[in-house]
């Protein structure tokens, strides 16, 4: 009779991989620079908004985001699974992830919230009717893109039950009977199956990132430079505060 293994038989991975270590370091520095950008913008805005070159600031912030995705894609090519369970994020940040990052639809909710703010410097409150229509059209397109990515992600998830995996299960039963030849065949199929799974996940991650980048570009193309800066500042604030809340929550549990 075969008894089920206890939970102790499944070791909990505590050590970080090289990719996780490198990306953790990169991400901490990247977030630090993002916070510096935000502090700079808030400071000069309070002092004298006329001196702020909003277009230059938008370019710096977009370049900063592009750097993140460039580094992320290179790291994910080595270890894509690290980005589906990122150790550099707190549980609070992780629960808000949509396929390894922020969900594009959030950008449109943020714009809607910013439009309702009636105060000096609230540039999105002065969006024109044409801008609002363009943002809505973009929102619809992005929603369709999100659904496309989600369908592909689901396809990858259910793919674990495809013919290759079923064949692996059947082969495993033959290992004991046929010895090393069956083991070699089994290992080969496992390697092929895992390689296919990882390749599929990397593709889904890039699809999701492309929708995020498409959202940013689409929104910034519609907004004026000062509106774009306000939007990016709000996006940055959400990300920074979420990280701070997550770290604070983690400390309470220690």
From TrEMBL:
Every DOG1 domain range: 20-252
Superkingdom of origin: Eukaryota
Molecular function terms, GO-annotated: sequence-specific DNA binding
GO term, biological process aspect, one: DNA-templated transcription
Residue ranges the record marks as coiled coil: none
Family matches, as InterPro entries: Seed_Dev/Stress_Resp_Reg (IPR051886), TGA_domain (IPR025422)
The name this protein goes by in its record: DOG1-like 4
Natural source organism: Olea europaea subsp. europaea
